[in-house]
């Protein structure tokens, strides 16, 4: 495969000399063994250079999907790294099983999402990588290494959110749960005072809760509540909730846009895979006219961080399309943005104007600096690499793990060198 390739948003043009699409693991092993610098390319939904390998080789995993293997006794499923969540989810549901969590878009690949600690929402739900119980990857010498949570313990926790720097993942084993149905409701115009007073109640009201705001006034524009049908009594829908009003029809997170591509709302029950994401699987996103950033910080700082961002809303709002606020449960994955503590995530979908966004990001990061905010590994940020490194207590262990698996730096690039090793 040759030619210039861009990411989904079109803001990154990959500078790899060669782009490959192997049809088998054996082909991939040969590619890796002979390459001096190589990396994996998923569905290209990252907004920064984490996946690029300038002058080297990029490997698309699209054809490494294979047949999913369900193990009902262990409650796991093993899939090829190129499988997307949407296609896996429908198949799993048909077999009577589910994943515990999904991201906003079901179109992203399993391997890419887990490698960057991508997440959904829910005070009790860990990010997508927390479901990983096994990994198969091709290492720098072209050999296959198989890792498992049971056998490899703490070092496995270091490998799961690997940022593409340990090797190229070929298969992933995920924990599954019995399938379940979800009802989704949307409330509009939640007053800021109610948010501050009832923040924990709101975020833990249901299995998954998302807040959408344009940071244009003292309110939350929309509250999306995703309630498991088999968990009644935690929260009950009503025409009004904390002075917010139930939406009279399905809504899009961006005010004024048609909800035709969004998952069904209005309390209509449906399978988990068709409610936990915000967007439907049969809606295929084209090149997006947007940029994205996200910061995850300890949930104990949530109210203070909300107030800090509210202080700079006049700077944020003009460049913003929409902002989403979500909760994610703590995990033990070394390089996860949720490592060690429950977090609150502030997501920003920006207008596609990088010079303006870059200026605003500096303001947002300054506002969030006191609250230990970690930027999402696959999105845009301007935080100094030194500051990023200071936010990960297990970074020295991860550096040693990378050196053990890739002593010559075959899978490293400028992004990894800057943010993990500080060598540039």
How many DSSP H or I helices? Answer: 12
Query: Span between N and C termini?
Result: 30 Å
Give the integer mean of the pLDDT values: 94
Major pleated sheet:
10 strands, antiparallel
Radius of gyration: 21 Å
Number of strands: 20
Tell me the overall shape: globular
Q: How helix-rich are the residues, as a percent range? A: 10-25%
Strand content: 15-25%
Uncertain parts: none
**Structural class by sheet pairing and helices:** alpha+beta
Describe what this molecule looks like in 3D:
With 424 residues, the protein is an alpha+beta fold. 24% of the residues lie in helices and 25% in strands. The chain has twelve helices and 20 strands. The chain has helices at residues 25-34, 85-94, 110-115, 149-160, 192-197, 199-203, 302-311, 313-316, 354-368, 385-390, 395-405, 414-421, and strands at 18-20, 38-41, 57-60, 69-71, 76-80, 97-98, 132-138, 144-148, 168-175, 177-178, 181-191, 208-213, 219-228, 240-241, 244-246, 270-271, 291-298, 320-328, 343-350, 374-375. Strands 11, 12, 13, 14, 15, 16, 17, 18, 19 and 20 form a ten-stranded antiparallel β-sheet that branches. The longest helix is centred in the last third of the chain and has 15 residues, at 354-368. The radius of gyration is 21 Å and the shape is globular.
């Amino acid at each position: 495969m040759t030619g210039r390739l861009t990411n989904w948003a079109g803001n990154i043009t990959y500078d790899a000399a060669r782009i490959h699409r192997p049809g088998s693991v054996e082909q991939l092993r040969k590619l890796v063994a002979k390459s001096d610098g190589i990396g994996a390319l998923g569905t290209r939904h990252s907004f920064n250079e984490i996946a690029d390998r300038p002058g080297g080789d990029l490997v698309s995993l699209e054809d490494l999907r294979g047949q999913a293997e369900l193990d009902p006794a262990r409650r796991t499923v093993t899939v090829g790294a190129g499988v997307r969540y949407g296609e896996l989810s429908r198949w799993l549901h048909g077999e009577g099983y589910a994943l515990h969590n999904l991201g906003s878009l079901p179109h992203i690949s399993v391997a890419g999402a887990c490698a960057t600690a991508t997440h959904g929402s829910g005070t009790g739900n860990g990010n997508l990588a927390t479901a990983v119980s096994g990994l198969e990857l091709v290492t720098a010498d072209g050999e296959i290494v198989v890792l498992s949570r049971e056998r490899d313990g703490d070092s496995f926790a270091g490998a799961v959110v690997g940022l593409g720097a340990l090797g190229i993942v070929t298969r992933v084993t995920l924990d599954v749960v019995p399938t379940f149905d979800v009802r989704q409701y949307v409330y509009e115009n939640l007053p800021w005072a109610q948010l501050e007073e009832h923040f924990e109640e709101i975020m833990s009201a249901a299995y998954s809760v998302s807040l959408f705001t344009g940071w244009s006034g003292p309110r939350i524009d929309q509250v999306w509540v995703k309630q498991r049908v088999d968990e009644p009594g935690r929260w009950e829908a009503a025409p009004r909730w904390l002075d917010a009003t139930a939406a009279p029809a399905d809504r899009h997170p961006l005010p004024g846009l048609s909800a035709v591509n969004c998952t069904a709302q209005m309390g209509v029950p449906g399978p988990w895979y068709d409610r936990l994401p915000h967007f439907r699987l049969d809606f295929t996103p084209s090149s997006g006219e947007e940029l994205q950033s996200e910061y995850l910080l300890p949930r104990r700082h949530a109210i203070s961080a909300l107030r800090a961002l509210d202080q700079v809303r006049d700077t944020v709002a003009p460049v913003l399309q929409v902002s989403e606020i979500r909760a994610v449960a703590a995990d033990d994955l070394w390089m996860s943005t949720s490592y060690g503590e429950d977090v609150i995530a502030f997501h920003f979908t920006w207008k596609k104007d990088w010079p303006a966004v870059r200026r605003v990001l500096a303001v947002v990061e300054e506002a969030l600096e006191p609250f230990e905010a970690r930027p999402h590994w696959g999105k845009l940020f301007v935080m100094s690499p030194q500051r990023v490194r200071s936010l990960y207590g297990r970074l020295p262990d991860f550096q040693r793990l990378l050196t053990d698996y890739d002593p010559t730096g075959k899978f490293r690039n400028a992004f990894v060198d800057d943010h993990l090793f500080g060598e540039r």
